[in-house]
Specification:
Layout (H helix, E strand, L loop, with lengths): L1 E5 L3 H13 L4 E6 L3 H11 L2 E3 L2 H7 L2 E4 L3 H10 L9 E4 L18 E7 L18 E5 L1 H13 L4 E3 L5 H28 L4 H21 L2 H4 L3 H4 L2 H10 L2 H21 L6 H7 L9
Parallel strand pairs: 1-2, 1-4, 2-3, 4-5, 5-6, 7-8
Antiparallel strand pairs: 6-7
Helix pairs in contact: 1-2, 6-7
Length: about 290
Amino acid sequence: MNIGIIGAGRVGCSIGKYLTEHADDCTVVGYFSRTHDKITDAADFTCSKAFSDLDELIKSSDTLLITTPDDSIKDVWDCIDKQTINGKIICHFSGSLSSDVFEDILEFGAFPGSVHPMYAFSDRFQSYKNLNEVVFTLEGHSFFLKRMDLLFSSCGNTVCLIEKDNKVKYHAAASMVSNHMLALLDTGISLLQEIGFSREDGYKVFSPLVKNNICNAVDSSIEASLTGPIERGDFNTVVKHLNGLQGYPKEVYGLLGKNVLEIAKRKNADKDYLRIERILNNENHSNDI
């Protein structure tokens, strides 16, 4: 498999380096990008070629990986000379877009698909080191699925297949677990700042708590890892929390508290959570404490 990569940012550099070091029967032939310095850096990093002409990259490749931002994928597709892609795999790395972005691709004899590594790429030249633990999700034409499944499986990765209609929900789940979790951490740190903690101390306070919770959840289960006043059925503490919060933090506490309650019910099927359920559903129990 001769792979050409369009886009030389964090995803493009990382995937190219990872495949160069780990994939069987695979050669990264080079990169094309509108930013010359990025192409040169990516090519040097992967011991491949910096292409100044997109058509030349396409001619040299049987598989094209488009690793640009989502908003640019359609533009890249529109720029490709459709008479040069017969028999080639063309895929992108968007989590939210499906292979449908490659409009009329089958008419030109090419095989569309999308690849999404469930991973946050933070550095062009370091992120590849952790990709051996990442799950790759594929969607697209059957020929694409077969070839790319073999490619990433040869690297030792777990590969999952999804339907194109499920990509938006899939990506929303990824965003919630990744991005929204950071927003929740930021909310907690902000509350500590309100009572006199520095932001730096906030990180120190929450670091072992967050790390231990996540490790326990992924190593065991969410149910086994759940602790706290809702799980214990500590009604008075939950009421005090709600009465002590205002605005956005209170909304977050109440909304996520309902989810915590559902997890607690799964963990402790015989426990009575009715009073806590009522307070989380905005029934007034402030006089009960």
